[in-house]
Amino acid sequence: MKKLTLLLGILIGLMISSCSSNNDNPSTETDPIIGKWKIKSIELNSQIRTLEDCHLQQTNTYQKNGNLIEYYWENEMTPCVFNTSTIKYKLENGILTSINESEGTNGVAFEISNEIITLNGTTLVFKEVSDNNYGQYPENQQQIFTYIKIE
Fold first, then answer.
1. Domain regions of the chain by residue span
2. Residue 61, pLDDT score
3. Distance between terminal CA atoms of the chain?
4. C-beta of residue 61 within 8 angstroms of C-beta of residue 37
5. Which of 10, 14, 35, 140 gives the lowest tally of CB atoms within 10 Å of its CB?
6. Which residue has the higher pLDDT, 29 or 111?
7. Is the pTM of this model over 0.85?
8. Sequence-ordered list of residues with C-beta below 8 angstroms from that of 122, at least 6 positions apart, any chain
């Protein structure tokens, strides 16, 4: 009888330990904005702009450390000549802000604010609504950018 009680105690102990949560594996979930995004479309006044092939090669890479690496078509002239710049970004309360410390005036960084429309694991859509030089853009000048995640 003692052996049966001991065996039952061991079995119950094994069952309890196998059902406990595993806190050794922290969540590896990342912010959906982290990654490399390729431009898909730009809309202004409900009209989709026709993008040149060079436009379609532009990317934004959002990093965990708050850096935004922009790969963009310089001067928008043919042939495609691209440039890369690293600036800062922050995402708070549905507003994605790009912060370029080298383009500011009077020691204040240039900031563009964008309202997030869609942000998930595959699609980023935002509306460019204001900057710290000109303030709120008129509704008919607010462009909507759509990006597709590629990495």
1. 35-149
2. 99
3. 62
4. yes
5. 140
6. 111
7. no
8. 148, 149
| 142/112 Cα distance (integer angstroms) | 12
Q: In the numeric block, which tokens belong to residue 101?
A: 């410390």
pLDDT at residue 102 above 50?
A: yes
Both tokens assigned to 78: 């043919």
Closest-CA residue to 94 (of 115, 68, 121): 115
Place of tokens 């710049």: 85
**Interval 78-85 mean pLDDT:** 91
- Domain 35-149: state its class: mainly beta
pLDDT, tens digit (0-9, with 9 covering 90-100), for 1-36: 444 444 444 545 444 444 444 444 444 568 999 999
Handedness of CA 118, 124, 127, 131 (dihedral sign): positive
Distance CA 99, CA 94 (A): 16
pLDDT at 76: 79
Q: How many CA atoms lie within 13 A of 124 on its CB side?
A: 25
Per-residue tokens: 12: 């119950």
3-class DSSP assignment, residue 3 = helix
